[in-house]
Amino acid sequence: MAKSSTEVAIEGLKRLLSDKEGLDDVAAVKIEKLTAELQEQDHEEEFDPVRRIKDGFIHFKTHHFDKCPAYYKKLAEEQHPKFLVFACSDSRVSPSYVLNFKPGEAFMCRNIANMVPAFNQLRYSGVGAVIEYAVKHLEVENILVIGHSRCGGIKALMSLPADGTTSNDFIDDWVKIGLPAKAKVESEWSHATFEEKCEHCEKESVDLSLVNLLSYPYVRAALANKALKLMGGYYDFVNGTFGLWKADFDIKPEIIIGSS
Amino acid sequence: MSTATISGWCLTSLSQPQSPQNKATLRPSISARLNSPASPAPPNLIQNKPVFAAPAPIITPTWREDMANGSYDEAVEGLRKLLREKASLEPVAAAKIDQITAQLKNSDGSSSPFDPVERMKTGFIYFKKEKYDKNPALHAELAKGQSPKFMVFACSDSRVCPSHVLDFQPGDAFVVRNVANMVPPYDKVKHTGVGSAVEYAVLHLKVEYIVVIGHSSCGGIKGLMSFPFDGTNSTDFIENWVKIGLPAKSKVLAEFPNLPFPEQCAYCEKEAVNVSLGNLLSYPFVREGLVKKTLGLKGGYYDFVKGTFELWGLEFGLSPSFSV
Predict the structure, then answer these.
(1) pLDDT, tens digit, for every residue of A185-243?
(2) Closest CA to B278 of B239, B315, B303, B311
(3) Does the interface predicted TM-score (ipTM) exceed 0.90?
(4) Distance between CA B176 and CA B162 in Å, rounded?
(5) A185 to chain B: which residues are within 8 Å by CB?
(6) pLDDT at B13 over 50
(7) Is A132 in contact with A218 (CB distance < 8 Å)?
(8) Which of the 8 DSSP states describes residue A236?
(9) Which residues in chain A have Cβ-Cβ distances shorter than 8 Å to B29?
């Protein structure tokens, strides 16, 4: 078999190294670097999205869908999720993964920085439609808003310039939903570092979203009927922890104040 | 169950106030996290194993749920014998028997109603033990940053999570989920939610592919096909949102006017994906990525009735201009 071009080249290099003293180390470093670069290139060229999606679906089909036909058949007829979950679009924080939700358990809304804006039919019909459908039609029993560590959206919010100028088309405008949370953080932890403020804001913004949920009449009605619970969560993937808290909104019956 | 800081888990009780400052505000009281604002960040995992070990039977001096000493008849006879000797226990016994009857009526036979907190606790502990702790290198890398190759639009439907259906692992896909997996056209007033996600994914994360995935029996698409859209809205938001897909409805009604409604819906579910793919082209950074070939667009359809997945692509290019 004829020698490959790589073998020929290697032989040429070997001859040089035997002729000239002291080049071995330099040559070793350069060859290692070349190997790493070629590996990376090879890896990148290999990525085939169609194959990745195909493999992913086949995995799901064989390990889950085909293994529980009765479960999936029932699910195909109707969904009765007990949760509505708001989570960030971040690739690292899928609630199905982090909280091990199975198909059928959680109706999910994912957007930048897991924001729930207040009721606004013009600007926020996307989130409004999710809440209206989940609470009024699916009658979910729990709404969970999950924030997370190292959130790019919250970082953008904390980095917004004070003069209100924006540097992008959409991102700044969207994360401004969280301005009340940012204001609270700036006033309460004014001496914290930027990273610490971001972490506080990640949690404060969850609380803000929980409060914004109250601006939707169907949420208020379900809370008054004690048919709905609101909860906040925080997934810290740096430390591998999950914090969970309940939000208690109790609207008590009226007391008639008699006239004197 | 203790509410103290357990390594790997923080759970607060309802009674702890968040901080003294909150009492002055008009906000309804929100129960505090265990770590108050003044305290340091939650502790790192102290012991490298989950706090709750594999479920062990609850050892109590009295009965275990699944073990009876004798048959049901023998148990009832034993109770009757006791009540003959101590008649004063009758009312209490009657109430408790009613309670047992009610408990057993639960469809799954469990003796306690659904507890969402317990469900999430179990879920996270499973993830921590089986995924997070078993892949420390992966999660350490992910903690530094994400570089997903995919951006995925999927419906909020509880049955179609891309983590399940396409087995996406942490770090694989930047995911947007909304009713009927819609991508509205570029609009700085009405659609900053989707706009910000597309902008972030394409310009900052530099994803390589945007995939829009529709699915069978979609409630949002069914709404789109059902609502009259004659100016009278019967919903606050849903109609205004799903009308993004109106071009798909028009196409389906024009091409298949005589098909039964469920089949028209199925066609609309797929056609709406194409409408969304077309709407993606209205974002300048998407067009630029497509022309430079740094970005690709794909459409998908998950049929959970048949158990199938279809995938297709959208080609887009601009030929070089020439002076006429």
Answers:
(1) 999 999 999 999 999 999 999 999 999 999 999 999 999 899 999 999 999 999 999 99
(2) B315
(3) no
(4) 10
(5) none
(6) no
(7) yes
(8) E
(9) 248
Using a CB-CB cut-off of 8 Å, the residues of chain A touching B201 are 89
Among B9, B163, B302, the residue with its CB nearest the CB of A97 is: B163
**Cα of B89 to nearest chain A Cα, Å:** 34
Pairwise CA distance, residues A35 & B12, whole Å: 52
* Other residues' Cβ atoms within 10 Å of the Cβ of residue A151: 23
How far apart, in Å, are the Cα atoms of B266 and each of A202, B243, B261, B274, B277?
40, 17, 9, 13, 18
CA B222 to CA B220: how far, in whole Å?
5
Residue partners of B295: CB distance under 8 A and separation at least 6: B202, B207, B208, B209, B210, B286, B289
Residue range B155-186, pLDDT digits in tens: 999 999 999 999 999 999 999 999 999 999 99
CB atoms within 10 A of CB A31: 12
Task: Reduce the DSSP state of residue A62 to 3 states and report it.
Answer: helix
Q: Which amino acid is at B213?
A: I
pLDDT digits (tens, 9 = 90+) for B25-45: 333 333 333 333 333 344 333
Chain A CB contacts of B113 below 8 Å: none
Burial of A120 (C-beta count, 10 Å sphere; 0-12/13-18/19+): middle
Binding-site residues of B for Zn(2+) sit at 155, 157, 215, 218
Q: Is A90 a catalytic residue?
A: yes
Task: Find the DSSP H helices in chain B.
Answer: 72-85, 90-105, 116-127, 136-144, 162-165, 192-199, 219-226, 238-242, 246-255, 261-280, 284-291
According to DSSP, residue B106 is labeled S
Among B120, B129, B202, B213, most A C-beta atoms within 10 A, so best to mutate, is: B120
**β A229-236/A241-247 pair status:** antiparallel
* Yes or no, beta carbons of B179 and A83 under 8 Å apart: no
A178 vs B292: CA distance, rounded Å:
35
Q: Is the pLDDT of residue B148 over 70?
A: yes
* Candidate from A160-169, A171-180, B54-63 with smallest mean pLDDT: B54-63
CB B268 within 8 A of CB B244: no
In degrees and rounded to multiples of 5, residue B237 shows phi and psi of: -125, -35
Q: How close A207 comes to chain B (CA, Å)?
A: 8
Out of A19, A25, A88, A248, which one is annotated catalytic? A88
Q: pLDDT grade, residue B146 (50/70/90)? A: very high
Consult the annotation and say whether A59 binds a ligand.
Answer: no
